Amino acid sequence: LIGANRRFTVSCWVRLSVPSYFDWNRNLVVLASRVGGSETDPVAWLIRFSRDTGNLEFVTRSGAETLIPQPLVRRPFLERWYHLAVVRDGNVLKGFVDGRPVFTSSADPGELAGNGVSIGGLGDGLGFLGDIQEAAIYDTAVSDSQIFDRMFQDQTGRVGLRGYFKLAASNTADNEYRNFAQNAPAGGLRLVKAGVGTVVFEETDRAGEQSIFDSRKN
Fold first, then answer.
1. What is the pTM of this model?
2. pLDDT at 211
3. Which of 21-25, 126-130, 151-155 has the lowest mean pLDDT?
4. Rg, the chain, Cα only
């Protein structure tokens, strides 16, 4: 899922819903370019909530080389939807939150690595606490303006889209883990539930994604 000249774009909507009794002994993985293993293994992209910094952040590593974690959202609100996106074009990495740029890095973390896609964990039974929807994976570097424009759009037929997982309520259970990308890799790259936790698919639209945050802040 990585394009020529080391290009990719990953994005999703995410909301943290952490109970007060939760023991912060681990990070919460949002998206990762591997299936299984751990966060210390080579990975082209890894978006997580860090237990150490309290930030939603981006990490990439290849072998012994690791790019210093790049913060996307510092101390995010609970129950607030955020749109996160990271674009790589060669050695340049850019991060976006709600369509606006938040970091740029030109450090070269080495070769890109991964062995698939994980959403909400790494298959170790330690699932994400909250909601993840509209996870999109491109093998191209999407432009800054396109990141903003596509936040609330259906992306099914976009050029370079290889993985598109809506992860929302559907009339058929088959669509809950479906890859909606028209240019999906051979086999479709369908998601498979891992671990023993409960996965719930909620129905969310443009109004719903921000309504909880807006009602408490406005």
1. 0.89
2. 47
3. 21-25
4. 16
